[in-house]
Write a structure and sequence with these properties.
Strand content: 25-35%
Order of helices and strands: EHEEH
Strand order of the largest sheet: 1-3-2
CATH topology: Rossmann fold
Number of domains: 1
Structural class: alpha+beta
Bound molecules: guanosine-5'-triphosphate, magnesium ion
């Protein structure tokens, strides 16, 4: 039986709902959420599975509003927003 798997990294500014979205997709509280900015301090991984597929979601720590400099998930995210 074939199966599919992949990674999704949630990178963006503080307090925009990254952790809430990860918890919703995973279906469990894997990451702390709050109305306080920069609650997530390090990358948290959650796994969502279904028939024949698996998705690893990475809840990235908040990116600053001016994420520039060396290539990183944050600098890529800021270029696309
Ligand atoms: N109104 C509204 N509030 C939301 C939504 N998603 C998340 N929130 C609220 O926004 C606040 C921040 O949510 P988090 O999921 O902790 O945000 P975050 O992007 O992980 O924040 P950091 O970890 O600080 O980067 C919480 O109070 C959530 O309840 C949404 O779709 N609508
Ligand atoms: Mg968070």
């Amino acid at each position: 039986m074939s199966s599919r798997s992949g990674f999704v990294v949630l990178a963006g500014r503080a307090n925009v709902g990254k952790s809430t979205l990860v918890n919703h997709v995973v279906g469990a509280k894997v990451s702390i959420t709050s109305d306080k900015p920069q609650t997530t301090r390090r990358a948290i991984r959650g796994v969502a599975t279904g028939p024949g597929w698996q998705l690893v979601l990475v809840d990235h720590r908040a990116c600053s509003a001016r994420a520039t400099g060396s290539p990183s998930v944050c600098s890529i995210a800021s270029r696309r927003s």
